Every structure is written in structure tokens, then in C-alpha cells.
Amino acid sequence: MSLPTSLPTSLPTSHYRHHVFFCCNQRDGGASCCNDQHASEVRDYAKKRVKELGLSGAGKARVNMAGCLDRCDEGPVMVVYPEAVWYTYVDRADIDEIIDEHLVNGRPVERLRI
Ligand code: FES
Question: Do residues 67 and 25 touch, judged by C-beta distance below 8 A?
């Protein structure tokens, strides 16, 4: 199979305004990973909160879990596209701030960026 030699000149409109990925990777054997820092719980909270605020769906936001995003030493990590802003977080208050500032107001939360 051959790859195209040029990219399309225009990109399609994104289905979501913001697409958020939480690393929820769980490693065995004691190796550090985001899920050891409650990533799955926090992702569930973020998904619920985005829905409660009416921010979820086409043209709005989508919160997904991801496998290892290869920034394990900086974890727990999440990333918001299309801006490709990476964050770490400690608790639900951090997630509330990311939702309120970044997803609602379009302002990345500098103090949580990695
Ligand atoms: S385990 Fe989360 S970035 Fe690798």
C-alpha cells in the first residue's frame, strides 16, 4: 500500500470543539502509571461534569479514556485537542478549573500545564 504524497489542502471541521483524553493506563508490578493516581475516577468525574454542564456532544466536548500517553513521569496526564494542551491534575477542583476555563472560556489553565 502506498501513502498519498500530499496532504489535503483543507482539513475537515472537527466533530468536537474539544476532545479530551485522560491516560487511564494501569501497570502491573508496581510500575508507576496514571491510574495509580486515580485517573479513571477523575476521568469519570470529568465526563459526568461535562455532561451536567451541557457541554458534551457534537460541536461541543468529548471526554475519553486513553492508554499510556508516554508522559508517565509527569502524570497523571490529560490532553485537550485541538489545542494540544497537556495537563496534570491533583483533584476534582483542578478538573473543574480546566472545564470552566479551558472548555467553557477557551483559556488554558497555565498552572496545570505540562
Ligand atoms: S501511564 Fe499515563 S502517560 Fe504513561
Answer: yes
